[in-house]
Amino acid sequence: MGETLNADGTLSEQLEYVLSRSAFYKEKYAGCGITSENAANRFSELPFTEKQELLDDQEAHPPFGANLCAELAEVQRIQKTSGTSNRPVLIALTPKDIETTVSVGATCFRAAGLEPTDVVVHCLNYCLWMGGYTDHQSLERTGATVVPYGVGNTVGLVEFMFHAKPTAIHCTPSYLAKLEAVLAEQFGGASPKEFGLKKGLFAGEGGLQYPNFRQRIEEKWGLCAINANYGVSEALSMIAAECAERDGLHFMAGDALLPELIDPATTDPIPIETGAQGELVLTNLCRLAQPLIRYRTRDVISVVRAEPCDCGRSSFRFQVTGRSDEMLVVKGINVYPSAIRSVIDGFPDMLNGEYQIVVSATEPLAEIAVKAEHVAGLSPDALESLATTLGQKIRHVINIAPRVALCKEGELPRTEGKTRRVVREANDEKIGI
Ligand SMILES: [Zn+2]
C-alpha cells in the first residue's frame, strides 16, 4: 500500500518525498533552484502555494491534479473542499492520510469535552464534504456514541432529539436558528432547553469568538457552547478546538502540520507569539496523497496565548480574525471587517447589527467610515453618546479612529444573500457620511 513512506513525518523527509513525486511542485520550484536536496535548508524561501493554483492544476490535470503523489490504487477516499466562493478542490486521501486526519480530529473533540458517555448528533453535510463522514469518524474515535444525522429533515431531527435525548450536538452555529424556527412553528413554541442537550460542539463558521453570541446560545439552549472544530480541508480537516478554558482555539495538528504566520500584504514572516496576528500558512508533514507546502489558508488569526494552558496543553491558542482577501489597508494598517462587526455586536440593546464600512474607491485608503443602524426609541443624547463610544471602541480594536454615523432601522440597504458590508465610494472628498 505504500503506507510506510515517510513514517517519521519530519520536514526534510516530507519535502524530499514531495519533490521526488509531485510534478506540480517540481515545476513550481524549477525556476528558483529548489531541489529535494536543498528544500529543507531553504524552506523560508519556498514560494507559497495558493488555492487558485490547486484549482488550476486540477483543471489542467483532472481529477486530482499533478500534485497527486500517491498511486491511484493507494487512494482510499475522495472528498472536496466546501467551495462556497469558487469550484471545490478535490481531496484524495490514502489510508494513512485518513488515519492522521481522524486522529487529530478526535484530539480536537476530546479537548472540546466530548466523552465516551456522550451521545452526539452529527449534523454536518455528508455529501463529499470533510465535515461529514470524516468528522463522523473523529467523533467516534473519542468513544462517544455518534448519530449520523447530516443536514435536512430538521423536523425529523427535533422528533429524534425529544425521543432519544442525545447529550451533545455537532453543527454550525447558524443551524441552531433553523432548529429554533422549527420549534416555534411546528412544535408549539417548545424551548430548545427541552432537548436536554449538555454540549454544543460548533463547527464551520465564526461567531463564538464574540461573547454576546456565545452567551445568547447558552442562555437559550441551556448548554455549554464550544468552538470545537476549526479546519482547513485542503491541508488536513480539523486542526484546532477550544478546551474547557475556552480562551482561544488550541492548535492541535503539530505532528501533522507545520504552521507559520505571515503578513498578508507583504508576506513577511511573523513569529507565533502571544499577541501576534497574521495569515496562517500550513505545510503538511506527513500527508501522502496531495501534500501541500507553505499553503496560504487566507485565514488571518490572532494568537491569544503562546504559553501553556491551565488545561495542560502547551500548543498555542488563537482566534480567527478574518479573511486576508477581505482585508483593507487603511493608513498602512491592516483592518478586517469582522473586527468592526465584533464591536457592533457588543451593543445588542442599542444597535440592531446592520452596518456598513465605507472607504474610498481608490487605494491607498486614508480613512474609514462606519455606518450602523440604531434601534428605535433612543434619545438624541443617548445617540450622541453611543456614536462617541462606538467610535472609541472601534478605534481601540483597529487602531484607527473611524468616522461614525448612526442611522435609523431600515436605512441601510439589504441585499439578497450575503449583504455587502464594505462599500467603496467614488467621491474621495467625503466618504460615506
Ligand atoms: Zn487549554
What is the ordering of alpha helices and beta strands? HHHEEHEHEHEHEHEEEEEEEEEEHEEHEE
Q: What hetero molecules are in the model?
A: zinc ion
Give me the side-by-side strand order of the main sheet. 4-3-5-6-7-8-9-14-13-12-10-11
The CATH architecture classification of the largest domain is: 3-Layer(aba) Sandwich
Name the CATH class of the largest domain.
Alpha Beta
User: What is the beta-strand fraction?
Assistant: 15-25%
Stated plainly, the CATH topology of the largest domain is called Rossmann fold
Please state the CA-atom Rg, rounded to the nearest Å. Answer: 23 Å
CATH homologous superfamily caption of the largest domain:
ANL, N-terminal domain
- N-C termini distance: 64 Å
Number of helices: 10
> Based on DSSP secondary structure assignment, what is the total number of beta strands?
20
Uncertain spans? 1-9
| Biggest sheet architecture | 12 strands, mixed
Helix content: 25-40%
Question: What does the model show?
Answer:
The protein has two domains: 96-326, Rossmann fold (3-Layer(aba) Sandwich), CATH 3.40.50; 328-425, GMP Synthetase, Chain A, domain 3. Helix content is 27%, strand content 24%. The protein has helices at residues 11-21, 23-30, 51-60, 95-111, 133-141, 154-164, 173-186, 211-221, 337-344, 380-398; strands at 77-80, 90-93, 119-122, 145-148, 168-171, 199-203, 224-231, 238-241, 249-251, 257-262, 269-270, 277-284, 295-305, 317-323, 328-330, 333-335, 351-360, 369-374, 403-407, 422-425. It has a twelve-stranded mixed sheet with strand order 4-3-5-6-7-8-9-14-13-12-10-11, with helices on both faces. Strands 19-18-17-20 form a four-stranded mixed sheet, covered by helices on one side. It has a two-stranded antiparallel sheet with strand order 1-2. Helix 4 crosses helix 5. The longest helix is centred in the C-terminal third of the chain and has 19 residues, at 380-398. The model is unreliable at 1-9 (pLDDT under 50). The structure holds zinc ion (ZN). Zinc ion binds at residues 243, 245, 250, 309, 311, 313. Residues 243, 245, 250, 309, 311, 313 line the site of zinc ion.
